[in-house]
């Protein structure tokens, strides 16, 4: 069975759905009436949850502090997010002993086919932590909100969304010879780009893009471990992300949904 280790910051993703009933008389803002609430693990925990629902064995090393992302969503037809409130938006760093065990191949026997670094830049992983994890292991996939630097060069693959890619464009172009076979750029409805090749996305009705990058990342790593073919892995990840954006909230994708899609 495939076994994947996930390391990174996690949160609770909460969605408060309701309707706008009128405008406030005190200020030019809508009056929101809550109807229902959902909550589930987000960020690195969402990557982990996607791995589990796709039938993969996985371990998660993450923060213990409770980081919360609460979104208020108008569900009357347009599913429009009105406001996001983040609380306890940082956490303590990974335990050095655990990090060293991963680097020295001692963590739970280190029987992992790949390591996913899901770094939302909340404090759990420093640049040095990521650099050491990449240098000490094989099949390391990095998804980071940090500004890229030399510390990420030893990753096997790096996933960036379009906004992150543009923010790091100077570093990318300066190090293109080192990154061209590693950098995967997701572009939403425009698909994905890898080493000059464009992977088109199927046009669907998008209900929520929250967490879609986590689903893409989990699926990418699973298929790469299965096939050792990054092009097949990107195609599979595209399918999974396309399925999940048609759902509300931060969701996971199942094997049955993929089969129905295909």
Which key terms come to mind for this protein?
single chain; about 260 residues; alpha/beta; UDP-N-acetylmuramoyl-L-alanine:D-glutamate ligase; eight-stranded mixed sheet; four-stranded mixed sheet; 9 helices; globular
Kindly report the spatial arrangement of strands forming the biggest sheet: 4-1-7-8-9-10-11-12
CATH topology: UDP-N-acetylmuramoyl-L-alanine:D-glutamate ligase
- Count of individual domains: 1
The DSSP helix count reads: 9
CATH class: Alpha Beta
CATH architectural name: 3-Layer(aba) Sandwich
The profile of the biggest β sheet is:
8 strands, mixed
Number of strands: 12
Briefly summarize what is shown:
With 262 residues, the chain is α/β, with parallel strands linked by helices. It has 9 helices and 12 strands. It has helices at residues 44-53, 96-103, 127-136, 162-167, 169-174, 176-179, 212-227, 230-244, 255-261; strands at residues 3-8, 10-23, 30-43, 57-61, 68-74, 80-87, 114-119, 140-144, 157-161, 183-186, 192-194, 197-199.
Strands, helices and their partners?
Elements: E1 3-8, E2 10-23, E3 30-43, H1 44-53, E4 57-61, E5 68-74, E6 80-87, H2 96-103, E7 114-119, H3 127-136, E8 140-144, E9 157-161, H4 162-167, H5 169-174, H6 176-179, E10 183-186, E11 192-194, E12 197-199, H7 212-227, H8 230-244, H9 255-261
Parallel strand pairs: 1-4, 1-7, 2-5, 7-8, 8-9, 9-10
Antiparallel strand pairs: 2-3, 5-6, 10-11, 11-12
Helix pairs in contact: 1-7, 7-8
């Amino acid at each position: 069975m495939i076994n994947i280790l996930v390391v990174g910051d996690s949160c609770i993703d909460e969605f408060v759905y309701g309707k706008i009933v009128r405008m406030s008389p005190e200020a030019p803002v809508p009056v929101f009436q809550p109807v229902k609430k959902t909550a589930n693990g987000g960020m690195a925990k969402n990557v982990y949850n996607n791995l589990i629902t796709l039938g993969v064995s996985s371990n998660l090393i993450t923060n213990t502090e409770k980081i919360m992302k609460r979104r208020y969503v108008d569900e009357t037809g347009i599913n429009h997010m009105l406001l996001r409130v983040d609380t306890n938006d940082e956490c303590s760093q990974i335990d050095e002993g655990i990090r060293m065990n991963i680097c020295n191949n001692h963590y739970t026997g280190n029987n992992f086919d790949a390591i996913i670094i899901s770094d939302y830049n909340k404090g759990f992983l420093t640049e040095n932590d990521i650099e050491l994890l990449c240098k000490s292991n094989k099949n390391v996939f990095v998804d980071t909100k940090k500004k890229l630097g030399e510390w990420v060069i030893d990753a096997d693959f790096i996933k960036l969304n379009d906004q992150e890619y543009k923010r790091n464009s100077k570093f990318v172009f300066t190090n293109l010879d080192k990154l061209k076979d590693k950098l995967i750029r997701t572009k939403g409805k425009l698909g994905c780009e890898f080493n000059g090749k464009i992977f088109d996305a199927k046009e669907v009705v998008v209900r929520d893009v929250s967490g879609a990058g986590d689903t893409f990342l989990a699926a990418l790593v699973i298929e790469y471990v299965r096939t050792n073919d990054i092009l097949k892995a990107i195609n599979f990840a595209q399918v999974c992300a396309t399925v999940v954006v048609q759902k509300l909230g931060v969701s996971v994708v199942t094997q049955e949904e993929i089969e129905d899609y295909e």
